Amino acid sequence: MTHDVIVALAVLGVAGQILGAGFMLVGALALVGIRAPLQALRSGVEGYELWLAFVVAAIATGGSLFFSEIAHFVPCELCWYQRICMYPLSITTLLAGLFDDPRVARYLLPLPVVGGGISVYHLLVENGVAGQSKTCQISAPGGCAVKWINEFGYVTIPTLALTAFALAFAFLLLAAFEPLATVGTDER
């Protein structure tokens, strides 16, 4: 059963990466002046941005708890720092969604940015590009370089975390800022 859940989480991660690639394409098109895809995306998720960020954060939080509490993977120091950034997102995005308060999204944006940065560094350590610290080596068996999972040849725990942080950032960004078409209009 544990392996089945790991594969399911990895599949969700790959789906999230595909969605993230789509977001990047839409953003790139908007930067070069092609705004129709961005407007379609915004209208498609309008009002649900915080809920989508909550779903991503809740799955990531549940996945990390599954890895440590059920699969018995010992979280390393970098995993804990990523959790510090993800766990509050699952609670605050739920509350923001319940109270329909997109203003809070602006204040939450630093969490996925910092968490994503830690995930990138963790990936570098995991793949031997950056060395791990002494505290990393004693924080878990094998330190921060251990690949507890390696699905599809590249999906590891920090890869899943980075995917979740990127998606949470994208949804929070959509929630935080009004579409350009409505900025400056007088709504009375």
In whole angstroms, how far apart are the ends? 56 Å
* Number of domain units: 1
Uncertain stretches of 5 or more adjacent residues: 183-188
Q: DSSP strand (E) fraction?
A: under 5%
Order of helices and strands: HHHHHHHH
**Number of extended strands:** 0
Shape: globular
Tell me the helix content.
Answer: over 70%
Description:
The chain is 70% helix and 0% strand. The chain is mainly alpha-helical. The chain has one domain. The protein is globular, with a radius of gyration of 18 Å.
Summary, kept brief:
This protein is mostly helical and 188 residues long. The protein is 70% helix and 0% strand.
What topology emerges from the helices and strands here?
Blueprint: H1 2-31, H2 36-45, H3 49-70, H4 77-98, H5 104-108, H6 110-126, H7 134-139, H8 157-176
Helix pairs in contact: 1-2, 1-8, 3-4, 3-8, 4-6, 4-8, 6-8
What features would you highlight for this structure?
188 residues, single chain, disordered C terminus, mainly alpha, 8 helices
